[in-house]
Amino acid sequence: MSEKDIDEDWSFENLKPLETGKWTHNYHRYPAKFIPQLVEKLLDEYMVGKDGHIDDPFMGSGTTIVTAISRGLKASGTDINPIAYLITKVKSTPIEPEYLNDKINQLISKLNDSNIIPFITQNNIERINYWFTDHNKNELGKILRIIYEEEDPDIRDFYLVAFSHILKNCSLWLQKSTKPTRDLKKKPVEPKEAFRKHLLKMKKGNDEFYKIVPANVRENIQDYLNIKIGDARKQPVPDESVDLIITSSPYVTSYEYADLYQLSTIWLDLVEDQKEYKKEFIGTSHKKYENADLKSQTAKKIVNELIKKDEKTAKAVEAFFSDMEEVFNESFRILKHGGRCCYVIGNTKLLGVDILNAEVFAESLQHSGFKIDRIIKRKIPSKVLPQKRDEKTGRFTSAQKSNFESYPTEYIIIGLKE
Ligand SMILES: C[S@@+](CC[C@H](N)C(=O)[O-])C[C@H]1O[C@@H](n2cnc3c(N)ncnc32)[C@H](O)[C@@H]1O
User: Fold this and answer.
1) What is the DSSP secondary structure assignment for residue 345, as one 8-state letter?
2) Residue among 86, 246, 281, 342 to mutate when testing ligand 1 (max atoms within 8 A of CB)
3) What is the pLDDT of residue 392?
4) Exposed, middle or buried: residue 384 (CB in 10 Å: 0-12, 13-18, 19+)?
5) Residue 332 in contact with residue 235, Cβ under 8 Å?
6) Ligand 1 pocket mutation pick from 34, 39, 59 by most atoms within 8 angstroms of CB
7) 269 CB-near residues (< 8 Å, 6+ apart)
8) Block means of pLDDT (10 residues each) for the chain, length 418 residues?
9) Pairing assessment for the beta strands 353-355 and 348-350 based on DSSP bridges
10) Amino acid 155: pLDDT
């Protein structure tokens, strides 16, 4: 598969940030999110002029879901990360622009009220103290108090997404890093100003999105949007009800999504048991692994190669492929006959072993009953996904430090349920 030619039509090299971040797509940063144009092109090819139902088992920041809603299609999906769910919900729910404008103005006028008592959960206070200066902790606590006083849940969630987005800039988290690293020399930004500015940016995005979404969808959004905090192996939809799945799965032992969003989960107190929560993520190195009987021969070979290098890594990769086999079975269950699933994935290397994710996905999809309809190879011009992995650890690292390429290209594996 690595010999396959790159399809330039799918690389979208000349897009500007204004285009990839249009509508609500720039509400919140999210590592390894895909660009809306990729989803739009897949919808153009497979959903033209149809009423339809799109699903994404790994929603992340909701690129697929937002795009489906923008076209008046039903959208369902899951993400195990409660922040991903919140971001997706808010990004796909258009709010009447004048109403939102009034609400934001009211909120901004409250920000300078000095009598507000900060809302700071005591459950995670040690970690809040670790990441935030006292000044910013109090300022953020005041903003959160004002947010929680908002009665309209859609407006409150809109504010919470703005709040979650500014946390990194307001904290001691090393700015250039996606991984949790503290920078004691950092001058964190002033929360009130950052919050105000980001709300206004989001408002602009909402107003554009509102115009695009068909009126009947805006007015009955609950009939179109069906998303849950939950596992990719259990989609919230009946058998044979979905037309198209567009998704990008996590990569094995690369990003620990549970760690990346801890600033938001600690402030919003979203996770009861951090240790158990981390184990729910597919591709994590946090969980203990059982032996799995993998169906894909390529997957077995990769695991056997890795065992010679490091058993823990081998087990993590085995668990990843095994979990993904279950996700593919679930995709098969929910798709209508004639429906397709599109899995976006790149190959990589761990401990010197080629991790041929694309080959394994294609084989495993066939074991789940799919016919491989098409494989697209594309360049990844996006700056969001770091292009390099450290050869020793297999983790993403800065381009200068690593000694080989990681995901300069990726594949879209398209399976057809005949
Ligand atoms: C590559 S990201 C998806 C990005 C998305 N396409 C976007 O545009 O933002 C993979 C997602 O899988 C989620 N994930 C990891 N394990 C999961 C599981 N067991 N069930 C559902 N989602 C999971 C992560 O939280 C992460 O949001």
Assistant:
1) E
2) 281
3) 56
4) middle
5) no
6) 59
7) 121, 123, 124
8) 85 90 96 92 89 96 98 97 97 98 97 93 94 97 97 98 97 91 96 98 98 97 98 98 96 78 93 86 80 93 96 93 97 98 94 96 98 95 52 52 57 98
9) antiparallel
10) 98
In contact, 55 and 77? CB cutoff 8 Å: yes
Q: What is the largest CA-CA distance in the chain?
A: 65
HSE value, Cβ hemisphere, 13 Å, CA-based, for 124: 23
What letter would DSSP give residue 26?
T
Characterise 49 by phi-psi region: left (phi > 0), alpha (psi -120 to 50), beta (else).
Answer: left
Cβ < 6 Å from ligand 1: which residues? 30, 32-34, 58, 60-61, 63, 78-81, 84, 231-232, 248, 250, 257, 280-282
pLDDT score, position 201:
98
114 token code pair = 């000095």
As a whole number of angstroms, the distance between CA 388 and CA 396 comes to 6
Name the 3-class secondary structure at 236. Answer: coil
Global pTM reads 0.94
Q: How far apart, in whole angstroms, are the C-alpha atoms of residue 40 and residue 47?
A: 10
Give yes or no for a contact between 407 and 385, defined as CB atoms under 8 angstroms apart: yes
Residue that the structure tokens 């690293």 belong to: 181
pLDDT of residue 403: 39
Give kind and range of the element (H or E) at residue 288: none
d(CA 163, CA 143): 8
pLDDT at 332: 98
* Alpha-carbon gap, residue 89 to 87, rounded angstroms: 6
Query: How far apart, in whole angstroms, are the C-alpha atoms of residue 10 and residue 162?
Result: 31
Question: What per-residue confidence (pLDDT) applies to 284?
Answer: 84
